């Protein structure tokens, strides 16, 4: 490495000497030229000096490691693996916590440890707050006008402030009660199954969805509602298609956009269907005689008027409310439902953990249902939630970031517009931080267990911290507490194999379908 660095330094010095000779020669030449030519020559000098600065700056830092690139496609094949988070984590074991992948003209840098992810997203957040320039991302996000995929601009910041205020308001006024009501309704649904073997994923989806639709529109749905089923089918399809290599290839290889692509055609169809459903919801809401400002949508619509009358910057429109609703539905439904399915599956693998949580709930709460304020008195339950957030961050690769200026991570030079992939799954399975990283051990987060919540980043960090983090924490705590207070989850009698814990990776990490019996507690 030292020899390589010295050769690079010698090359940089040689390049500098050559450039100085060119500048001296051009300086002599300018004395005999007119004023216009002199300014043109000065522009060339500035450009050359800028290139020299970037060259010397990048050459003074070690080059990023990574797998060998193939002609034309680069490392595209590395992104086609069935379980991308595990594959990127395995590459991290080979190339280190920071490595690069090339896809067409795009350079990606994968971050695989909490330390380097925190450096990029928190300590240097202003360098890496951008989103990749994405052809397909613009289509899914209404031209980049949603919180999750929008680039870091004044418009985005105004939009985020408005949605954040709406979420904070609902958390203070009604969130706890809404989740409690949905948790009790979920209890009734599970009781009605009368200990039969069922796949609970759809019930978890309905419960999580009703939390969001109640907060957003003041509206709840029954599981059999055609409107709800259509919305869930549409959102599930978009999430699944968005993770396809047929879609991501369109960003790295623009020429492919001119070729037939059935997967992309299906994505366009589902996005149009999604927008029609959300538009219908918003129009129905606005047609009410009085807009309820306690609902998120009402607060956002009222906020548009206030923003337009007081801000001289970017204008927020109904499109921003529309896309905020999409963010809330996908972020608050798919992720929470997937997490609950994962939790029950892991508990089937270690039923004694269920018993420990149940006994703690009975001992501490003396028969009543828990409140979120009880979490500090329930360390066993809290450790279970922390371990599940570690093992299965539902967005395992977060959402890619983009360097909005030249910067560095862990001593490596990162040029402007480099795409940054925070591998949260890899950071949460780092053997240097987590002994037996793939084992389900909630006790690691209990006193003396050696685990520390400060190494958890399930919601990302910095300026791009998940907007719904506070809602998600309350929701996961209360749903888990209610379920384990009232039920013991066991395998069906005719089922001899436990659920597969590998999962299906897309934008959201989901577990493969399985059946379980919910036995009521005495």
TrEMBL record:
Residues 1-32 form the signal peptide. Its cofactor is heme b; heme. It is a peripheral membrane protein. GO terms for molecular function: heme binding; iron ion binding; steroid 17-alpha-monooxygenase activity; steroid 21-monooxygenase activity; steroid binding. It is found in: Endoplasmic reticulum membrane; Microsome membrane. GO terms for cellular component: endoplasmic reticulum membrane. Pfam families: p450. Heme binds at residue 466. InterPro entries: Cyt_P450, Cyt_P450_CS, Cyt_P450_E_grp-I, Cyt_P450_sf. Keywords: Endoplasmic reticulum, Heme, Iron, Lipid-binding, Membrane, Metal-binding, Microsome, Monooxygenase, Oxidoreductase, Signal, Steroid-binding, Steroidogenesis. Its EC number is 1.14.14.16. Belongs to the cytochrome P450 family. This is Steroid 21-hydroxylase.
């Amino acid at each position: 490495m030292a020899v390589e660095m010295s050769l690079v330094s010698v090359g940089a010095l040689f390049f500098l000497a050559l450039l100085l000779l060119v500048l001296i020669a051009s300086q002599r030449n300018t004395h005999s030229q007119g004023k216009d030519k002199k300014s043109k020559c000065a522009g060339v000098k500035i450009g050359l000096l800028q290139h020299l600065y970037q060259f010397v700056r990048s050459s003074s830092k070690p080059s990023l490691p990574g797998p060998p690139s193939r002609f034309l496609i680069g490392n595209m094949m590395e992104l086609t693996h069935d379980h991308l988070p595990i594959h990127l984590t395995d590459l991290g074991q080979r190339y280190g916590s920071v490595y690069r992948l090339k896809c067409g003209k795009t350079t990606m840098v994968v971050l695989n440890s909490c330390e380097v992810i925190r450096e990029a997203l928190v300590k240097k957040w202003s360098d890496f707050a951008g989103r990749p320039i994405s052809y397909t991302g613009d289509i899914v996000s209404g031209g980049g006008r949603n919180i999750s995929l929008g680039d870091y601009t004044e418009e985005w910041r105004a939009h985020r402030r408005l949605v954040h205020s709406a979420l904070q308001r609902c958390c203070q006024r009604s969130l706890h009660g809404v989740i409690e009501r949905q948790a009790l309704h979920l209890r009734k649904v599970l009781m009605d199954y009368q200990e039969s073997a069922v796949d609970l994923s759809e019930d978890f989806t309905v419960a999580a969805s009703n939390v969001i639709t109640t907060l957003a529109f003041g509206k709840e749905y029954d599981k059999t509602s055609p409107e709800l089923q259509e919305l869930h089918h549409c959102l599930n399809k978009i999430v699944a298609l968005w993770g396809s290599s047929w879609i991501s290839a369109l960003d790295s290889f623009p020429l492919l956009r001119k070729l037939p692509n059935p997967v992309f055609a299906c994505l366009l169809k589902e996005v149009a269907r999604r927008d029609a459903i959300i538009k219908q919801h918003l129009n129905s809401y606005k047609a009410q005689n009085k807009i309820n400002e306690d609902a998120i949508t009402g607060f956002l619509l009222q906020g548009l008027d206030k923003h337009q009358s007081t801000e001289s910057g970017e204008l927020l429109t109904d499109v921003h409310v529309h896309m905020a609703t999409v963010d809330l539905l996908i972020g608050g439904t798919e992720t929470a439902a997937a997490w609950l399915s994962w939790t029950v599956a892991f508990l089937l693998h270690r039923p004694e953990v269920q018993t420990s949580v149940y006994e703690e709930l009975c001992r501490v709460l003396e028969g009543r249902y828990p409140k979120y304020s009880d979490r500090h008195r329930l360390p066993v339950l809290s450790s279970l939630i922390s371990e599940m957030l570690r093992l299965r961050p539902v967005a395992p690769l977060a959402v890619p970031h983009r360097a909005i200026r030249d910067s560095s991570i862990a001593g490596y030079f990162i040029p402007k517009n480099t795409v940054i992939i925070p591998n949260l799954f890899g950071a949460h399975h780092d053997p240097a931080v987590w002994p037996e990283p793939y084992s389900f051990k909630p006790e690691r987060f209990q006193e003396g267990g050696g685990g520390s919540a400060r190494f958890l980043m399930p919601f990302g960090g910095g300026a791009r911290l998940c907007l719904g983090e506070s809602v998600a924490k309350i929701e996961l705590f209360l749903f888990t507490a209610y379920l384990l207070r009232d039920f013991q989850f066991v395998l069906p009698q005719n089922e001899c194999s436990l659920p597969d814990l590998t999962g299906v990776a897309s934008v959201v990490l989901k577990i493969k379908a399985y059946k379980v019996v919910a036995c009521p507690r005495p």
